[in-house]
Amino acid sequence: MSLDPELLRALPKVCLHDHLDGGLRPTTIVEIAGEIGHELPATDPDALRTWFVDSCNSGSLVDYLVTFDQTIAVMQRAQDLRRVAREFVEDLAADGVIYGEARWAPEQHTRAGLTVAQAVEAVRDGLAEGMSAAAERGHEIVVRQLVTAMRHVPEPTTEIAELAVRYRNDSVAGFDIAGAEKGFPPERFLASFQLLRQASAFYTIHAGEADDLRSIWGAVCLCDANRIGHGVAIADDVTVADDGHEVVGDFAAYVRDQQIALEMCPSSNVQTAAVPSLAEHPIARLDALGFRVTVNSDNQLMSGTNLSRELGLVAEQFDLGVEDCRRFAVNAAKSAFAPWDLKRRLVERITSF
Q1: Residues near 37 by Cβ (< 8 Å), separated by ≥ 6?
Q2: Residue 44 phi/psi, 5° resolution?
Q3: What is its EC number (predicted)?
Q4: In angstroms, rounded to a whole number, what is the distance separating the alpha carbons of residues 269 and 231?
Q5: Domain residues of the chain, as ranges?
Q6: What is the CATH code for 5-351?
């Protein structure tokens, strides 16, 4: 079913899995790069946009991640982090998003002398500016940040988890680990997750995108994740019996029965070969089986997308309607790392549309 793009844009939406350094405007990259003397693969904004999307259609998560060298390079000064965060919120608002979580890795933004704390505060200020600008245009939106640790560092520390706790009441919604997944299991950061649990703080874990079911099992059963980033490989624990009905394995059933949200990102999952094609994505199958599926944009620049477009692609591919898109939005609202009263208001805005 093809849904009206304007209807999807107007639908109140919640985006849980969206990388700040994957959502820059090409014009912003060009302008900042010119100021700091950073060489880009293209200096025309349209050509640069095309370069990002083409480069990310590699079929490899590792190759996909290389493109972030260009965006991270222009996010080293406090004023640049503020600008990127402000524009990120404005772009979400223009797409009809009412709540978002912007994830990024502070440790990658200290080359120009910022501390990780100063970087977090710069993003905090930019998010606030973006929310204020959106409110002036009549759109109420809340966007908070998820601070991310890079999972492939030689020796994991608890520094970023401690940062998440320190700023938990100052724009930070929670914690994440991201980066190369295969060969770097989530339990390497077990000390961080234990620290967060002891502080009653939220966290999500990238798992089941570039590695198999074992990665998700580690994130859930060893690290006790509140949500799973991507989680595509959970479908490997769902089989088809001889009589044609689907059998949900014990682990997948646990994820479903606990309603652990799956932060699925259709376009990027195809780009990184997490799935061979959109038609083979398990999102609709898992949704029909009762998993708490959410739809997300992941990296708006790299995938040339936004949340409305992702919902439209899923709806068209799997013959879904606006009620299905509304259910995905409600799932995301219920799974947000946000206070209960805010989540209740989000659900009310979505269901009353």
Answers
A1: none
A2: -85, 125
A3: 3.5.4.4
A4: 10
A5: 5-351
A6: 3.20.20.140
Q: Identify the pLDDT of residue 66.
A: 87
Q: What confidence score (pLDDT) does residue 2 get?
A: 81
Q: Give a three-class secondary structure readout of 10-61.
A: HCCEEEEEEEHHHCCCHHHHHHHHHHHCCCCCCCCHHHHHHHHHHHHCCCCH
DSSP state of 282: S
* Residue tagged active-site, from 90, 101, 121, 209: 209
In this predicted structure, what is the pLDDT of residue 62? 80
39 catalytically annotated: no
Q: What is the pLDDT of residue 63?
A: 81
CA distance 252 to 343: 26
How many Å separate Cα 252 from the centre of its chain? 22
108 DSSP 8-state letter: G
Dihedral over alpha carbons 190, 192, 197, 202 (to 10 degrees): -110
Chain centroid to CA 108: 17
Amino acid at 72: I
Of residues 73, 24, 75, the one with CA closest to residue 301: 24
Distance of CA 152 to the CA centre of its chain: 18
Give the pair of three-digit tokens for residue 87: 């524009």
